[in-house]
Specification:
Layout lengths: L27 E3 L2 E5 L4 E12 L2 E13 L2 E17 L6 E12 L4 E12 L2 E11 L5 E4 L10 E3 L17
Antiparallel strand pairs: 1-3, 2-3, 3-4, 4-5, 5-6, 6-7, 7-8, 8-9, 8-10
Length: about 170
């Protein structure tokens, strides 16, 4: 259901439904500064990071990319919050997500959003303190804030129209 959550990290070339054509587009990253350590294969983009690839856009305060001999190893984005948006393939819907931090580990295929994590796909949305998603198994887990009664997990599933698309979410006054 939330296969699109994996798309939070623009540097991934994972098989996913959202805008696969985006992966064929050039990746553009802008930031106030960039440091690269060729020995450790770590690149750190800082200050108003804007990454775009096709319809995908990621906004962060800091983006840290580590590589292995085989390519991508991990990506960690920090922000206030980290913001992500991408158009779904063959749809007019967008996937939007945010959180204070987002981390992707290529070896485990696991994406973790922390700190008021939120994901919206069409009218459906999920929210919690931590959202963990495995891009390989499509298993996800949402955890509320511990010892905080108001930090409960929240999920909204919109009724489907006849075409299978979610109905438009009700607007708050």
């Amino acid at each position: 259901m939330y296969k699109h959550l994996a798309l939070l990290f623009l540097l991934l070339a994972l098989p996913a439904h959202a805008a696969n054509r985006d992966r064929e587009q050039p990746l553009n990253i802008e930031a106030d500064s960039l440091t690269v350590n060729d020995l450790t294969k770590v690149g750190t983009y800082t200050g108003n990071v804007v990454a775009t690839q096709g319809s995908m856009m990621l906004l962060a305060d800091k983006l840290v990319v580590t590589q292995s001999a085989n390519g991508l190893k991990t990506v960690t984005a920090y922000g206030n919050p980290v913001k992500f948006r991408e158009k779904e393939q063959n749809s007019d819907q967008y996937v939007e997500a945010y959180g204070a931090q987002a981390h992707y580990d290529e070896a485990s295929s696991e994406l973790t959003l922390t700190g008021n994590a939120f994901l919206r796909r069409g009218g459906d949305q999920v929210q919690g303190n931590i959202v963990t998603y495995n891009t390989r198994t499509e298993f996800f887990k949402v955890v509320g804030a511990p010892n905080n009664p108001s930090g409960r997990v929240r999920m909204v599933i919109m009724p489907r129209k006849q075409g299978g698309a979610a109905a438009a979410p009700a607007q708050k006054p």
